[in-house]
Every structure is written in structure tokens, then in C-alpha cells.
Amino acid sequence: MSFSSLVQDITIRDAPRRRGEASISTIDDRASRTSHISRAMSYASTAATSVSVSGDISSQLHAGYCHPLARSWQAERQLTKSMLIYPLFISDQDDEEVLIPSLPNQYRRGVNKLITFLEPLVHKGLRSVVLFGVPMRPGTKDALGTAADDPEGPVIRSIQLLRQRFPHLYIVVDVCLCEYTSHGHCGILRDDGSLNNQLSVDRISDVAVAYARAGAHCVAPSDMNDGRIRAIKLKLIEEGIVHNVTLMSYAAKFSGCLYGPFRDAAGSAPSFGDRKCYQLPPGGRGLARRAIVRDINEGADIIMVKPASQYLDIISDAKDLGKDLPVAAYQVSGEFAMIHAAAKAGVFDLKAMAFESTEGILRAGATIVISYFTPEFLDWLSD
């Protein structure tokens, strides 16, 4: 029954029933009508309440998120600046600053361009970066990736420079050989082109230790070779620096087509074949869980899932399997580029989707997000 019908029904039922009853004064008539309406409103309210509470009272949820602040309280995890890690591509061309066409607003920079770029971001609250070395000079790459731990290479020089200029900036370094090998694969190959896991792990663990000795706060092996977490941990122990170097494992890194812009930026596309034999298949949830457990048991301090948005179930699994470990998620270059492309096409607002996608990653269980949106988030979170 509508509200107007309720008013009319009560008015008719309460009207004088005797034909000979005298008319009341205008003032009394108005008072009577007001009384009827008030009673009707009370009746309607009571009827509505009885309908609402005919089930469980907990069905009434709107009050819990009707206000913007109240909505923020509903989030299991709030996005903060300290959760963000910003990827940086460091060229061995010291004065280079080149836009990466497939990766919107992202640049490949030489060591001489780093400080000027990072100073305003640090001032806005940037807490952490992850470094990817990009050798551009001819003849730098070889079959063994020997330039990866070159003391005069872009990564080690950048670590030392950033430690000096930004002592409170937390420096993560990606550990892999794909940018430095002539074949573009994440390790050392056998004669038949397959990955030699033992030699690869030995080489990659040496590179990780070199970065740690140079001053990296965190080393993050992304190669997905079996046993590399244990090998790195043991060498950090031997070096006597295991107590102050975090080991973040790319524990569940899936193969797929979302890395294209990154490979443009880092020059790390394989010269032949693909990485399906050592990166996880997209449907391999069980394999991902086993890889996460393996890396936890080998001594990882942080577990990472990559990519992020298409693997929210794996992030949730990582949080479940590593209850006492931080979980990181990398919103990779392809995810970032797709959000930009859709926003440019008018599908949605860029800022709204950046937040929505990142909040989904946090909701799944991540407490650390590697994101190309970090510079924008530093402004948006301040606003």
C-alpha cells in the first residue's frame, strides 16, 4: 500500500459517521487533518519496520557505508603510501631519459637522471623502489649475463647513489639474467637451448649477493628457477649479511602475454622460444601453491604473486599458505597499459579504476603492491 493510500484510508475510517453531526471549525479541521497524516506516517513507518525486521535485523547494512569515512572503515586493508613499490628502469646510458611507448608515462633513465626525478616523489612520501637494470651498450650482453653484477653497471651504481642521497628510501633490486643474456632467457642454457637450472641458480645467487653487498635492502629473484631461494639464503648467511637483507621471492610468477610493455622497457624478450618451461602456466593453481610453499620453506621473507589482477585467487592462497609472511603483488606492465588504454577510450575514469584494481589486490590478501601508478597514488592519497 502506498503512503497516499494509507493517509486516505485512515482519514476515511476516522471521519464523522453521523449525518447530523455539526461541522467543526476550520482550525479544528486542519488540526484533525494534521493528526490523521501524522497517524498515517506512523502507521506507514511501523509497517515498513515490520517488513524490514521480519527477517534478521542484520540485513540492514546501508548505515555502515552511507558516509565516505564509514565506507573506508569497511576495507580490510587501506591503501597507504608505505605499501607501494615503484619500478624503475635503469639504463647504462648515464644521461638517457627515454619514454617507453607501450608503457604510459614511464621512462628508461640513466643514473644521472635518477635524483632529479625521484626527489619530488620522495618528498611526497615515496618509500620504496625496485630497480631493473637495462644494458643498452653494444656488446654488453652475453650467454652468461656477466654484466648483471658489474660494479660499474647501472644497478650497483644506482643502489650506491640512492643509499647516499635518500637514506630512508627502501631499495629492492630485481634479480634475474634475462636483461643481460644474449638469448633473453632467465638463466644459463644447455646446448639444446633448455635451461640449466643448477648453473642458473649458482649464477643468480652470486648476483643477488653482489646487490646485497652494494647496499640493497631487499633482493627479489624473479627467474623462477628451482632452488634459487635456498641458494641465495645460504650465500647471504656465508657473507654474514643475512640479518639485514630481505629476500622477496617471485614465488608465483605466471607465464603469459601481460609482460609485453616491460620487455620493451627492459629489452628482455627471449630471442627464441618462450618461458613456459620455468614460469607457471596460467591455469596452474596447484603448481602455484606448491611453489609458494617451496619458497617459504627455503627461507623467503616475502612472497610475491605476479601478475596481480588476473590471479587474485593465488594472492589469497599465498596469504593462506604464508600466514606469517607479507604478501606482495606486482600489477604488471600489461595490466597497467590496459587500464590506461580503456580509460583513454572512455570506458572508465583512470583514477577510479587505478584505485578499484589496487583495492581488489589488497582485498585478496596482498600487503605490498608493486605499481606503475605509484607517482599518481602519492598525489591521490595526499588529496
TrEMBL record:
<dbReference type="GO" id="GO:0004655">
    <property type="term" value="F:porphobilinogen synthase activity"/>
</dbReference>
<comment type="pathway">
    <text>Porphyrin-containing compound metabolism; protoporphyrin-IX biosynthesis; coproporphyrinogen-III from 5-aminolevulinate: step 1/4.</text>
</comment>
<feature type="binding site">
    <location>
        <position position="176"/>
    </location>
    <ligand>
        <name>Zn(2+)</name>
    </ligand>
</feature>
<keyword id="KW-0862">Zinc</keyword>
<feature type="binding site">
    <location>
        <position position="372"/>
    </location>
    <ligand>
        <name>5-aminolevulinate 2</name>
    </ligand>
</feature>
<feature type="active site" description="Schiff-base intermediate with substrate">
    <location>
        <position position="306"/>
    </location>
</feature>
<feature type="binding site">
    <location>
        <position position="263"/>
    </location>
    <ligand>
        <name>5-aminolevulinate 1</name>
    </ligand>
</feature>
<keyword id="KW-0627">Porphyrin biosynthesis</keyword>
<dbReference type="InterPro" id="IPR030656">
    <property type="entry name" value="ALAD_AS"/>
</dbReference>
<feature type="active site" description="Schiff-base intermediate with substrate">
    <location>
        <position position="253"/>
    </location>
</feature>
<feature type="binding site">
    <location>
        <position position="186"/>
    </location>
    <ligand>
        <name>Zn(2+)</name>
    </ligand>
</feature>
<feature type="binding site">
    <location>
        <position position="178"/>
    </location>
    <ligand>
        <name>Zn(2+)</name>
    </ligand>
</feature>
<dbReference type="InterPro" id="IPR001731">
    <property type="entry name" value="ALAD"/>
</dbReference>
<comment type="subunit">
    <text>Homooctamer.</text>
</comment>
<feature type="binding site">
    <location>
        <position position="275"/>
    </location>
    <ligand>
        <name>5-aminolevulinate 1</name>
    </ligand>
</feature>
<protein>
    <recommendedName>
        <fullName>Delta-aminolevulinic acid dehydratase</fullName>
        <ecNumber>4.2.1.24</ecNumber>
    </recommendedName>
</protein>
<keyword id="KW-0456">Lyase</keyword>
<dbReference type="GO" id="GO:0008270">
    <property type="term" value="F:zinc ion binding"/>
</dbReference>
<keyword id="KW-0350">Heme biosynthesis</keyword>
<dbReference type="GO" id="GO:0006783">
    <property type="term" value="P:heme biosynthetic process"/>
</dbReference>
<dbReference type="InterPro" id="IPR013785">
    <property type="entry name" value="Aldolase_TIM"/>
</dbReference>
<comment type="function">
    <text>Catalyzes an early step in the biosynthesis of tetrapyrroles. Binds two molecules of 5-aminolevulinate per subunit, each at a distinct site, and catalyzes their condensation to form porphobilinogen.</text>
</comment>
<keyword id="KW-0479">Metal-binding</keyword>
<comment type="similarity">
    <text>Belongs to the ALAD family.</text>
</comment>
<dbReference type="GO" id="GO:0005829">
    <property type="term" value="C:cytosol"/>
</dbReference>
<feature type="binding site">
    <location>
        <position position="333"/>
    </location>
    <ligand>
        <name>5-aminolevulinate 2</name>
    </ligand>
</feature>
<dbReference type="Pfam" id="PF00490">
    <property type="entry name" value="ALAD"/>
</dbReference>
